[in-house]
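Weekly modeling sync, notes
Attendees: S.R. (lead), two postdocs, one rotation student

Agenda item 3: backlog of single-chain predictions. S.R. asked that every request posted to the team notebook include the full sequence so nobody has to chase files. The rotation student volunteered to paste the first one in as an example of the format we agreed on. Action items at the bottom.

Example entry:
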Amino acid sequence: MNTSEANSRAEREQPERAFEQIIGSSPALESVLEQLELVAATDSTVLIQGETGTGKELIARAIHKASPRCGCALIKLNCAAIPHDLLESELFGHEKGAFTGAITQKIGRFEMADGGTLFLDEVGDIPQALQPKLLRVLQEQEFERLGSGRTHKVNVRLVAATNRNLLEMAARNEFRCDLYYRLNVFPIMLPSLRERREDIPALVQHFVETFSRRMGREIRHIPPETMMAYLSYPWPGNIRELQNVVERAVILAQDGILSNTLPACGAPVAPPTSTGGPSAAPEPLEPMTLRNSERALILHALQASGWRIGGPKGAAVKLGLNRTTLIHRLKRLGIERPFRRAALADSPMTPEQPVSPAGL
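Predicted structure, as returned to the notebook:
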């Protein structure tokens, strides 16, 4: 393989490597990944929106890893976690003596991210007094440290995230309109876990493997009733809540069987968070039908078996079905091999070949 061919192959594989930590293949997630591939190669500002716990930081990291800036720093700052009177210093730095307690010079996050990417989480919490300075650095790529008149030039790609509706905040004069439009160059709306239930089995398996390895515990079996409970639960805390529930279940597991640690009534422990602001009504929960439950369980078995139907380690054995019965159910449920990015298969699916569900 010559150098040009190697470079071309590396470019094709780069998005796949960048997205490898994003678990799932539902239509809602696939749509997000397609958007990521398009915007990652640019320097455009990205605004990631979605409920709390949907994985906004993971998406920001994937954008950086798939971008030409992947060899440089990814600097992160949660704007809601910094007191308002210290946020300007965190963003732009300060000179020694700039204010009481400034005993040394401090480099801000924009300078740290020079040449790379800056991820500002909870950008809707930036106070209005600081928003003009943020707008300036986004437009001009220059700023001054606190206590200094010297202008610093930077080359930073910004990825911002929020679970608040910035447009509604701008209408209420709580957020600058010009800053909103400057941030909203390429908006990405992350789906809630309720909107991508097909991904729950894969996420559960991933978290079980992660925590089992971390705790030195072996989980050999996930009971169907436990998986059904996970599929039916509304998950107001989204993926973060699912992760915590699975971690607790691994701790409490006995005899290698994952326990169900959800509330017995199946009711959410907290109301769903809406991105539409305090006045927005929560979205109605989509009921989990028997067909969807059967589909999700079959997908879980396929993923656990490496997408194989037949054989001693195939999905049919895990489900307690005959191979022909499982093939019939795959056809009835519309589960067929998809054509995914950088992984196109030329040969038709056979019972012994890996399979993957279409439309997930």
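Discussion: group reviewed the output briefly. The chain has two domains: 3-189, 197-332.
Action items: rotation student to repeat for the remaining queue; S.R. to check formatting next week.
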